[in-house]
């Protein structure tokens, strides 16, 4: 990972963030990577929420997507922003790459979690590794 890019992990603090019906992108530099908080009008579930899967199961599934789609992303065939190609059927790769693109653009990205720190740490490691690849 380039030294000048930082991936920050922070526990969600409802007193710090004023959110309404936001699930994944809290700002262009801050993203929720886990579950929700506060019901329908608060922080909603992230696209990267693991649901009933264990962190290990989610990691294995995400790794399969990375192996499948990263070569095409690097070749310029898969864009993070804009229309998806017809062949793209991934669940999480695009969301993870949004984190990578934000980190590259701004020099850092902040990952917020409510209570599932192991899952958030896994996403952080994934983003850090992907930053070394693109």
What would you note in describing this structure?
With 134 residues, the protein is an alpha/beta fold. It has one domain (6-133). The chain contains 3 helices and 3 strands. A 3-stranded parallel β-sheet has the order 1-3-2. Helix 2 packs across helix 3. It is globular and about 40 Å long.
Write the layout of secondary structure elements.
Elements: E1 6-11, E2 30-32, H1 55-74, H2 93-106, E3 108-113, H3 117-133
Parallel strand pairs: 1-3, 2-3
Any idea how many domains? 1
> Rg, please?
14 Å
User: Mean pLDDT score, rounded?
Assistant: 84
- Helix and strand content put the structural class at alpha/beta
Main sheet specs: 3 strands, parallel
Strand order of the largest sheet: 1-3-2
Beta-strand percentage range: 5-15%
What is the β-strand count?
Answer: 3
As residue ranges, the low-confidence spans are: none
Helical residue percent band: 25-40%
Shape: globular
The end-to-end distance, rounded to whole angstroms, is 9 Å
Give the count of helical stretches. Answer: 3
Written as H for each helix and E for each strand, in order along the chain, the element string is EEHHEH
């Amino acid at each position: 990972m380039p030294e000048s890019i930082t991936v920050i992990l922070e526990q969600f603090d409802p007193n710090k963030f004023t959110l309404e019906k936001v699930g994944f992108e809290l700002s262009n530099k801050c993203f929720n990577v886990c579950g929700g908080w506060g019901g329908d009008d608060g922080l909603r579930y992230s696209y990267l929420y693991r649901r009933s899967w264990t962190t290990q199961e989610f990691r294995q599934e995400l790794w399969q997507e990375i192996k499948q789609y990263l070569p095409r992303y690097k070749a310029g065939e898969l864009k993070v922003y804009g229309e998806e190609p017809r062949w793209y059927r991934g669940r999480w790769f695009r969301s993870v790459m949004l984190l990578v693109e934000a980190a590259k653009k701004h020099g850092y990205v902040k990952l917020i979690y409510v209570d599932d720190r192991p899952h958030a740490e896994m996403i952080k490691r994934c983003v850090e590794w992907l930053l070394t690849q693109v």
